[in-house]
Amino acid sequence: MVDPSSGGAHAEAAQLQARKRLVYLVALAGGVAIFLLSWSIRGPGDPFLAYLYPLFAALLAGLWLTLWRRPDWLARLEPWMLALVAAIVLSRLAWHFHAGGSLDDRLLVLAGGHYWAVGIVILAAFVMLDHRAGLRAGLAILIVASLIALAGVIGEALDGTLATETAVYLLRVHLFLGVLLVLASIATSMRDTVKDALVRSEAMARAARTDPLTGLANRRAAEAFLDRQAAAVARYGHPVAVIGMDIDHFKAVNDAHGHACGDAVIEGVARRLEANLREPDFVARWGGEEFLIVAPETSAHEAQQLAERCRAALASEPIAGVPVTGSFGITVFRAGDTLDDVLGRADNLMYAAKAAGRDRVLVE
Q: What pLDDT is recorded for position 6?
């Protein structure tokens, strides 16, 4: 474990994507059911419903199957889902505007059956896409819907059959859609601003507790983790082991190969330590060439086995072309210990391991 909180954002994002995918699956399944039900109870004289609704149902079913089998395609499928739904809604709207009969007779169907769908698609554009893309898509949907209405109004105006009340009603509907677009744009802009601020805040918090060279927790994060473990020991009495580790002859590496090589060695050591720890274990770069490992629910004997595994991994092959070994000192929390007590014992044992010949593990 690099940092107990470092994976929180990733896990939350994954959960959000999973919930979004589930919503889309339910919505697509509902759309398929609506189209098939409308087709099955259709009346005569509506070829649009008779011939295109089965096609729309098949397209939605295809999207559902793709999203079900390929969850990782969610982001790339969202624009296609939006485009398909917008095309369906707008094509049905155009059909009702130009299928025959006066606009006055069709106002109820248009307002009650289709313009609400246009509004939903505009909102969906902001939900499914980011703010800029959502604004462009929503504006395009509104423009197409307005052009469809304008063509119908102009046709009746030229025939001299357009009722003033009908024109005013359609104007109000489109003004409402325009207001809806503006409000949705403002809301999503605020949402994205807050989200960006939270991301920046989290990034700054992560940087404050992360070592920039290795990506491990830094000393500040390690002290906070140790504080929590000390509280758990005092409350529950569970064993917690602390392992101090120092790279042997690290100054000689810098002197002989340069600081860039030294940095590569430190980074390589961090990766090998991570690879040999268990899931609950915590590793941090304590400072310079020193590392600290905290092993919850671990006795001194178990910690010794853990440290021996790490020691062997470091010595198994060179890192950045340089043979590397480490000296380890192990202690466990005792009743009444302060952090200074525990860290002092681990540090003394680590230096005793160096004095005894390096490349070894000492446990109290």
A: 47
Please list the rounded mean pLDDT of every run of 10 residues in the chain (364 residues).
51 80 92 91 82 92 94 90 92 78 67 78 89 92 91 82 82 90 90 77 75 92 92 87 96 93 96 93 94 95 95 95 96 89 95 95 92
**Confidence (pLDDT) at 1:** 52
Hey, what amino acid is at 89? Answer: V
Distances (CA, A) of 247 to 128, 146, 153, 358: 50, 71, 81, 9
Give the catalytic positions in this structure: 289
The structure tokens 């600290």 sit at: 292
Which residue has tokens 């002290």? 223
Query: Can you tell me the distance from the alpha carbon of 324 to that of 287, in angstroms, rounded to the nearest whole number?
Result: 18
Instruction: For tokens 């919503």, name the residue.
Output: 23
> What is each CA distance from 206 to 9, 152, 194, 279, in whole angstroms?
11, 58, 18, 20
For residue 174, the Cα-to-chain-centroid distance in whole angstroms is 36
Scan for tokens 């509506």, then name that residue.
46
DSSP secondary structure letter of residue 210: B
List the one residue out of 341, 345, 313, 343 whose CA is nearest residue 326: 313
Tokens of 203: 């990034």
H or E element: which one contains 122? helix 116-128
pLDDT at 156: 79
Q: Which residues in 32-45 are b (16+ Cβ under 10 Å) and which e?
A: beebbeebeeeeee
Which domains does the chain carry?
A: 8-207 (no CATH), 219-363 (3.30.70.270)
Task: Give the CA diameter of the chain.
Answer: 105
Q: Which two tokens stand for residue 204?
A: 């700054």
Rounded Cα distance, 38 and 29, in Å: 14
* Assigned token pair, 45: 């004289």
Q: What angle do CA 301, 307, 313 make, to 5 degrees?
A: 145
